[in-house]
């Protein structure tokens, strides 16, 4: 089965998902929603590019990444082709580029990751090719519908995308109902973490020895912006300064304004703060593996990767209730769910986690059992492979043959080119 993914080339989430699929024996292709270096986590797939060759091609080739450069591929001698020749040197029209890639690659399935970039791009390409477009699956990321669906300028576009899709995938039970509410009438796929699973044996080796209650680090995710609310976490920690004697606060992924606020906070409270640079994934796991509490706050999310990392590594999660953490932990027992802007509520949760050693140790035990059931890499990968095998069987039974679709796509492209030539 050949799958053409449409997604962000620099996203580790897209890379991890594609790696699970490539590891399952599929022919995996990637259409980047914008030009740029591919994430170094990608393995064993084909990437379509307008650059000849992309600047990172040599390093990527060593990881089994093959590039097909449409900068050297000759478009068909049609009005569409002539238009593409003019546009492609500037990579100006990704919709036409995607339509050409679909015709060239002849995938059995197009799977778009994320709505606002990938979904909005794929929909007009599907309309351009008409019946020649393959079955279309889309994966909803954390805020795609839950947040953007509440914005007037996005809600109609989300409805159009979902109405055109055949399959829908997400990582929250919450988002299944949201998709149907926004007009999706295709097939709902199993709920699976977008980032895949974890090598749990390796994770256990990275954890600090001893119980969680013996740890003396509090971790705060430093996102502060359109969705992140790290500054509220910092204010909550200020209310707990007396309980933080003997602790260090570690902040990762902090913007410059957050860094300034953290330095001022440390000077005012006397609590040492480590402002951490970007770090490899294993180092991030180690960080949660030596933390007593891991705090993540945002006004919108799905399954935050940092939340799952805390759960796997035995850190007690304090997580905003605006995501899907409640589908993984029991509030008040295996973690705390808080409003991302309720400073007093966040502070009360942190203070309880700092003072109740029995709570955090029992939570670590129960969360480890949850990880064993739901986050083992082999288990998650098997679910993803089964997901695509199921699509393959259903599409074969429906007779949606790739050769027939390609012929239809060619006819649709010629017809559209003719309409443009005849237009006044």
User: Average pLDDT value?
Assistant: 90
N→C terminal distance: 43 Å
Overall number of strands: 14
Supply the helix-strand structural class. alpha/beta
Strand content: 5-15%
Multimeric status of the protein:
single chain
Uncertain segments: 87-92, 411-424
From N to C, what is the helix and strand string? Answer: EHEEHEHHEHEHEHEHEHEHEHEHEEHHHH
Number of helices: 16
Percent helix range:
40-55%
Radius of gyration: 24 Å
Taken from the alpha-carbon principal axes, the silhouette is: elongated
Strand arrangement across the biggest beta sheet: 4-3-2-1-5-6-7-8
Largest sheet: 8 strands, parallel
How would the blueprint of this fold be written?
Blueprint: E1 2-7, H1 12-22, E2 27-32, E3 45-49, H2 57-61, E4 65-69, H3 79-87, H4 94-105, E5 109-113, H5 115-129, E6 136-139, H6 155-164, E7 167-169, H7 173-181, E8 187-188, H8 200-206, E9 217-221, H9 230-239, E10 248-252, H10 256-269, E11 273-276, H11 281-289, E12 293-296, H12 305-313, E13 316-320, E14 336-338, H13 343-355, H14 357-374, H15 377-398, H16 402-422
Parallel strand pairs: 1-2, 1-5, 2-3, 3-4, 5-6, 6-7, 7-8, 9-10, 9-12, 10-11, 12-13, 13-14
Helix pairs in contact: 4-5, 5-6, 9-10, 9-13, 11-12
